[in-house]
Amino acid sequence: MHEVVFYLAFAWMTVLLVVGVAAVIRLRSTAGRILALDMTTLILVALLILYADANRSPYYLDAALVLSLLAFLATLALARYHGERRIF
C-alpha cells in the first residue's frame, strides 16, 4: 500500500510541476509569475522529500530544506522589488 501511495503522490507532484512551469511561462503579470515560480519551487521541494523517503537518504531532505529557504528569500526579494522597485 505504501508503494501505491508513493507512486500516486510522485505522479501527482510531477503533473503539478509541469502545470507550474507552464504557468511561469504563460502568465503575463509579474506578480503572477512570482507566485507561480514560488509554487513550482515548493512542488520541487515536495518531490525531493518523496525521493528522500524512497531512497532512505537524509541528504535529499537537506537539499529540500536549503531549496525552500532560498525560495522563500527569493520570493521576498522579488515581491519587494515588484512593489517598490528596489530590493534593499
Describe the structure in brief.
This protein has helices spanning 2-26, 30-55, 59-84. It is mainly alpha-helical.
User: Runs with pLDDT <50, length 5+?
Assistant: none
Radius of gyration: 15 Å
Main pleated-sheet profile? none
Principal-axis shape equals flat
List keywords for this structure.
88 residues, 0% strand, flat, mainly alpha, Helix Hairpins, 3 helices
Structure, described:
By secondary structure, the protein is an all-alpha fold. It has a single domain (2-81), classed as Helix Hairpins (Orthogonal Bundle). It is 88% helix and 0% strand. The chain contains three helices and no strands. The chain has helices spanning 2-26, 30-55, 59-84. The longest helix has 26 residues, at 30-55. The mean pLDDT is 90.
Please give the structural blueprint:
Blueprint lengths: L1 H25 L3 H26 L3 H26 L4
